Amino acid sequence: MSKIGIFFGTDTGSTRLVAKSIFKQLGENFADKPKNINRTSPAELLQYDALILGTPSYGIGELPGLSTGCLERNWQEFVPYLDGMDLSGKRVALFGLGNQERYADRFASSMIHLYRLFYGQGANIIGQWSTEGYKFENSDAVIDNRFVGLVLDQRTQPYLTDERIKIWLAQITPQLLPALAEAPPV
To answer: What is the pLDDT of residues 90-115, one digit of tens each?
Structure first.
């Protein structure tokens, strides 16, 4: 598809609000409206060659879902449908939410599962993010001293969210746009 697809999982609505902010900053010429992962299909997600995927952080190092206390289906229920699919040619940027004070021992760790799934099935993961400016003990979402995607703490650093999104989008948009140009017409 010739736009960026934005998909998110959410429980309290925070990830949805961040996805909407990302969409607003990108604009409707470059991205389609964000879609909740519990209201979409794998076919809908896979029609995009450029993706921004967002996840809240629930459970202990798990993808959020019904078994981790979410009230609705989330990534945990969706990803099995992608098992074994070839995701080569997809460019994927990830964002995740977390609370670095309350969950310092597993800050934003859920994001690593999306990273492993999409990377393991051939997608090109872009948008790694610095760990500077955060105070946490551990995050599974850190590889080579960088987060695998943008991390936002809406509880203790909400005042940094808009600027972090702006900087991150400036970084990833030039990497996502070539995927749009290479996409076959729909």
So the answer is: 999 999 999 998 888 889 999 999 99
Instruction: Enter the pTM of the model.
Output: 0.92
- Which of 35-49, 73-87, 148-162, 169-183 comes out lowest in average pLDDT? 169-183
Q: What is the pLDDT of residue 44?
A: 95
Helix (H) or strand (E) holding 17: helix 14-26
- Distance between CA atoms of residues 16 and 7, nearest Å: 9
- Exposed / middle / buried, residue 26 (Cβ in 10 Å: 0-12, 13-18, 19+): buried
* Cβ contact 74:62 at 8 Å: no
Cα 108 to Cα 153: distance, rounded to the nearest angstrom: 9
CATH number for position 136: 3.40.50.360
Structural domain harbouring 95: 5-182
8 A C-beta contact, residue 94 and residue 114: yes
Written as six digits, the tokens of 11 are 């429980």
Structural domain tally of the chain?
1
Burial (CB count within 10 angstroms: exposed 0-12, middle 13-18, buried 19+), residue 19: buried
Task: Round to whole Å and give the CA distance between 15 and 18.
Answer: 5
CB atoms within 10 A of CB 183: 16
